[in-house]
Amino acid sequence: MPSLAALAAGAAGVLATDWSKLALALPVESAARFQSERAHLLTTARFDVFDQHALVPGGWDYLVATDMLYESPTALALGAHFEDTVERL
Fold first, then answer.
1. Dist. CA 31–CA 13, nearest whole Å
2. Rounded to an integer, what distance in angstroms lies between the CA atom of residue 65 and that of residue 49?
3. Residue 38 pLDDT > 90, yes or no?
4. C-alpha separations of 58 from 1, 37, 62, 72 in Å
5. What is the tens place of the pLDDT at every residue in 39-74?
6. What's the pTM value of the predicted model, to 2 decimals?
7. What are the domain boundaries of the chain?
């Protein structure tokens, strides 16, 4: 999980997003167990790449998207969100 790697690498703050409640709960639990001194730096937010009205959460220095390019519809939806995000910057 990239969010846990970023946390372990010393990121000042990490925001993990997903559409699944379980996928959001797992890094929180893992951080609490294995990086307890830094777990408070990890936050989560629900983000569904297929929701055309959803805004990519801002306030980041780096944006990492993983497991997003396996299927064309997902890649296209992600690209549309990134385009909107860049236009807002």
1. 13
2. 11
3. yes
4. 20, 25, 10, 25
5. 999 999 998 989 988 887 777 777 788 888 888 998
6. 0.79
7. 2-88
The more confident residue out of 39 and 75 is 39
Identify which of 60, 48, 58, 52 has the alpha carbon closest to the alpha carbon of residue 2.
60
Class of residue 40 by CB neighbours under 10 A (exposed 0-12, middle 13-18, buried 19+): exposed
| pLDDT bucket at 5, cuts 50 / 70 / 90 | very high
Angle at 86 between CA 57 and CA 49, to 5 degrees: 50
DSSP E strands: which ranges in the chain? 14-18, 42-46
- What is the DSSP code (8-state) at residue 70? S
Residue in the block written with tokens 């690498």? 9
Residue written as tokens 């703050």?
13
